[in-house]
Amino acid sequence: QLQLVESGGGLVQPGGSLKLSCTASSATLSVYPIAWFRQSPGQEREGIGCISSNDRFTYYQNSVKGRFTISRDNAKNTVYLQMNSLKPEDTAVYYCNVRHTTYWGQGTQVTVSS
């Protein structure tokens, strides 16, 4: 069973940065396309970006384009979500997901507040 684990969330001031990590102990992530989602209280989970299995393609939702970057470190079996210029509306639980599967992590809370 593939298990994903997110980390790196926390409290940050508006305009600040955070880098989230997504790792797996039972699988090699480099062979999978990985997506990042987020869910705010009372809202549906929304996809914010993804990276292809060969790293040739990345996609970002318009609301995060230019501020968020998805990357991999295959040596560490980790996919990252670098978040810059954070806004209060970015506050949510962030999840990673193997695209087109039901493999999800438990999520990590990101709170953007002064």
Task: Please describe what this structure looks like.
- With 114 residues, this protein is mainly beta.
- Helix content is 0%, strand content 46%.
- The chain is built from no helices and ten strands.
- The chain has strands spanning 4-7, 10-12, 18-24, 34-39, 46-51, 58-60, 68-73, 78-83, 92-98, 108-112.
- It is globular.
- The N and C termini lie far apart (40 Å).
Write down the overall mean pLDDT. Answer: 95
- What string, H for helix and E for strand, traces the elements in order? EEEEEEEEEE
Provide the low-confidence segments as ranges: none
Give me the secondary-structure category: mainly beta
User: How many H/I helical runs?
Assistant: 0
Share in β-strands: over 45%
Biggest sheet descriptor: 6 strands, mixed
Radius of gyration: 13 Å
Strand order of the largest sheet: 2-10-9-4-5-6
Task: Provide a quick synopsis of the model.
With about 110 residues, the protein is an all-beta fold. It contains no helices and ten strands.
Provide the descriptors you would attach to this structure in a database record.
114 residues, mainly beta, six-stranded mixed sheet, four-stranded antiparallel sheet, globular
Spell out the blueprint of helices and strands:
Elements: E1 4-7, E2 10-12, E3 18-24, E4 34-39, E5 46-51, E6 58-60, E7 68-73, E8 78-83, E9 92-98, E10 108-112
Parallel strand pairs: 2-10
Antiparallel strand pairs: 1-3, 3-8, 4-5, 4-9, 5-6, 7-8, 9-10
